Amino acid sequence: MRSATLPRITARDSSRRLSYNEWMQEPEIYAKLTDIFRDIFDDDTITLKPETTAADIEEWDSFNHINLIVATEAKFGIKFQTAEIESLKNVGHFVALIEKKLAARA
């Protein structure tokens, strides 16, 4: 449950970058990440699950992997280290890393 002191992120806010004092719950991260994936892969049918991997999305190659990372960094206002990216196993790990980065900024 959200604390009364934290701002609510709404759908109309989805195109703007998050500020340092905003916090998102996992479902909101999945929603924003899904938008990124659908945009990168030009596929509105993509539904992300924690177990989703590159093998599940036909166009997910090394070039689009970089596009995903850059778009995610821009959308969430965070930066990933190379070692963090290399350690990712699936979308669930990616979401956990995003949560960790957002929490560290708060």
Description of the molecule:
This protein has one domain: Orthogonal Bundle (Non-ribosomal Peptide Synthetase Peptidyl Carrier Protein, Chain A). Mean pLDDT is 84; it is low at 1-15. It is built from four helices and no strands. It has helices at residues 26-41, 62-76, 82-87, 91-105. The protein has 106 residues and is an all-alpha fold. The two termini are 17 Å apart.
Question: How are the elements arranged and paired?
Answer:
Elements: H1 26-41, H2 62-76, H3 82-87, H4 91-105
Which residues sit in consecutive blocks of at least 5 with pLDDT less than 50? 1-15
For the record, the CATH architecture stands as: Orthogonal Bundle
Task: Assign the structural class, choosing from mainly alpha, mainly beta, alpha/beta, alpha+beta, or little secondary structure.
Answer: mainly alpha
The largest pleated sheet is described as: none
Count of runs of 4 or more consecutive helical residues: 4
